[in-house]
Specification:
The protein has about 80 residues and is mainly alpha-helical. The protein is built from 1 helix and 2 strands.
Length: about 80
Amino acid sequence: MRECRGRQAGRGSMAHSGFSGSLTSPKFDLAVNMGHPFLNRTVDGFLKIGAIGACKVAADETFNYLHRGLTSATA
């Protein structure tokens, strides 16, 4: 039998496939200048938390809407 990289061909050899990639989150930098570094960080934090909360509510409402099965034909 013909050997392939130290293994016998046709016996115990499996096809190998792979996937390589990377996932990065979108970056959104907003410069807030309220005149004091602590106040700047506080306002920036509230804006980020508000954006995350709005995205969560939108995702929850979309899931509930789709889960109930309401479409324009049944509404």
